[in-house]
Amino acid sequence: MKKIPNHVAIIMDGNGRWAKGRGLPRIAGHKVGADSLKECVKVCAEIGVKYLTVYAFSTENWARPKDEVSFLMGLLADTIDREVESLNKNNVCLRFLGRLDQFSDQLNGKMRASMDKLSKNTGLNLNVMVNYGGRAEIVDAVNEWVKEEEGRGEGKLITEEKISSHLYTKDIPDPDLLIRTASEMRISNFLLWQIAYAEIYVTDVFWPDFRRNELSKAIESYGSRERRFGKTSEQID
Questions:
Q1: Which residues contact 128 (CB under 8 A, 6 or more apart)?
Q2: Are the beta carbons of 46 and 123 closer than 8 angstroms?
Q3: Which of 220, 218, 221 is nearest to 40 (CA)?
Q4: Among 13, 125, 127, 131, which one carries the catalytic annotation?
Q5: Is 22 annotated as ligand-binding?
Q6: Helix axes 105-118, 66-89, angle to 10 degrees
Q7: Does 140 qualify as catalytic in the annotation?
Q8: Is 207 annotated as a binding residue?
């Protein structure tokens, strides 16, 4: 690989279609998809990616069938119980980001306890976006800024830097590479602010089949691109 991105973000899509194509219930796709995430975490840690951010459950996903939502909540809880020791052993720092208070007290407690346990680790930073929406994040950031400014006696203009400093990802660098599986050409309300200059890679592969080789293809594609950030090629050279 010519160049390793510092931060990889992934929209993990296609679990339901993967299962349907095999005559299985949607939850089967979610189960196998959890294994894909485990492998991607391992690969990113091996090759030197510093941050991996995955879209696990959106603010809009509550509208899915109740049985599926209930299964996803259980899968999240079980995955925390099953994987936290392995993540700790491999020096992974874990964060759940989103509107966490809308989960049950039990699940909220599991997430916060696992984050606390892994907070001192210095290897891969794994960010799991749950009950997350890009628009919701920006709204929450602006509201936090407004609260801070109340009572200071004079109005102040909001800036890009001030919004960035109040996002869920305020101490995390913006993604270099955004991967979307299952061929959909949209970003689905994911990291709307942060992916302004991310390189985008879309694959036809469904998330349950997205393993080491597919991740390597995405990173190789990233390495072949010229990132200009609004400048010309001549200026970059």
A1: 53, 54, 56, 94, 95, 96, 97
A2: no
A3: 218
A4: 13
A5: no
A6: 20
A7: no
A8: no
The answer on whether 166 is annotated among ligand-binding residues is no
Locate tokens 């959106």: which residue? 58
Q: Which of 61, 88, 90, 108 is catalytic?
A: 61
Which residue has 């599926």 as its token pair? 68
**CB neighbours of 4 closer than 8 A, spacing ≥ 6?**
47, 48, 49, 219, 223
Q: Is 153 annotated as a binding residue?
A: no
- What the block records as the tokens of 172 is 């995390």
Put simply, whether the predicted model's pTM sits higher than 0.90 gets the answer yes
HSE (CB half, 13 Å, CA atoms) of 191?
31
Neighbours of 163 (CB within 10 A): 17
| List of domains in the chain | 7-225 (3.40.1180.10)
For residue 204, indicate whether it is catalytic.
Answer: no
> Tens place of pLDDT for every residue, the chain, 237 residues?
779 999 999 999 999 999 999 999 999 999 999 999 999 999 999 999 999 999 999 999 999 999 999 999 999 999 999 999 999 999 999 999 999 999 999 999 999 999 999 999 999 999 999 999 999 999 999 999 888 887 665 557 788 999 999 999 999 999 999 999 999 999 999 999 999 999 999 999 999 999 999 999 999 999 999 988 888 888 876
